[in-house]
Amino acid sequence: MTKPVLFDMTPATLQTWVTDMGAPKFRAAQIGEWLARGAPDFAVMKNLPTDFREKLDDMAQTLPVRVIKKLQSADGATTKFLMELHDGEQIECVLMRTSYGNSVCVSSQAGCAMGCRFCASTLLGVKRNLTANEILAQVLTAQWELRGDRGTSRPNGDPNNGDVSHIVIMGTGEPLMNTQNVIDFMERAHTTLGIGWRRITLSTCGIVPGIRDLIAWGRPINLAISLHAPTDALRSQIMPINNKYPLADVLAAADDFTALHNRQLMIEYILLGRKNQDGDTELFNATPELAESLANLLQGKNCMVNLIPWNAVDERDFAAPSGNAVHRFQDILIRHGIHTRIRRERGTDIGSACGQLRLNNAKGDKK
Ligand code: SAH
Fold first, then answer.
1. Which of 47, 112, 115, 126: CA 20 to 30 A from 155?
2. Among 75, 77, 139, 78, which Cα is nearest to 108's?
3. Which pLDDT tens digit goes with each residue over 183-230?
4. Of 308, 306, 294, whose CA–CA distance to 336 is shortest?
5. Is 84 a catalytic residue?
6. pLDDT above 70 for 1
7. Which residue puts its alpha carbon closest to atom 24 of ligand 1?
8. Catalytic option among 93, 112, 205, 354
9. 308 by DSSP, 3-state: which?
10. What is the DSSP letter of 365?
11. Nearest ligand 1 atom, CA 316
12. Rounded CA separation 78/143 (Å)
């Protein structure tokens, strides 16, 4: 039997639930406060009587996500959480401590249906959409990690000091295949955690109707498009979704979004190579010619290109290009006046870098 998740209850329902247990009403408010801070279990709720906490623990769960494994990168900056949902599905979420703040990368679906050829998240297909609460609970869990076991801020000077300041919707799943829940999540993160719209970035493989929904929604978040190839022919080879929403349509919708908010569009471009028979790496989408053609495609747009050298995924038949090839690609874009940077990968050693998050975390264990 699955236990009820108290985080999913309205304050009124929680109050009824608590009084039905024979506890006074004010206990519901106390529990509510702990839930809003992301309390992972009842044991931490020190202002409740011990026997009541034990009873709660037998009967219910605090959040709709439960951390079953936590991996820390060697430099201490990145923490990956493997989490279980109440129906047993698993997701991953990553906390990155950076010079500009604490950023959480959340998953929007258990698995992914998009089938991109270079990515680990889609290997087992999609299981289901996450609810807004399940996405919000990932952020709260990361915040709890930062704050320590009382759920309140640590003193200044503590390396973990500070709250979550940025959210990137770049974990497993395609957020615009779950648009309404993702929008509800962003609204709640904004109102309950005070995360500014401009500190939220949503990344999509290019679901055009979803981008239109974001335009109708009207909040000035950052939009990132996973582009990965400058021509339809090449893009369709590695991203099946391109057959449904070709490049021109995706970029037109993205332009409308950025024009509305006067925001810079983020373009993600993985640099892929392939091993040939001699074991040498041949460039796939990262040749100088393709850099020229990408520059032409993006000419005149208010955008920033994030180059992501491919992160290893065992099941996938690609290779990362050399550092030289990466810099040459970047130089060509810059020469054409396109803002371009190379994404600093975080947590590669714990399988938490872009494209390495997956449903079944067996891989994350080996390091
Ligand atoms: N489905 C959304 C959200 C995932 S974001 C999207 O496609 O944008 C994760 C980013 O990492 C995407 O840009 C994705 O294309 C990229 N990525 C996937 N596999 C990767 C890999 N093996 N190495 C580097 N980046 C990868």
1. 47
2. 139
3. 999 999 999 999 999 999 999 999 999 999 999 999 999 999 999 999
4. 294
5. no
6. no
7. 310
8. 354
9. strand
10. G
11. 22
12. 13
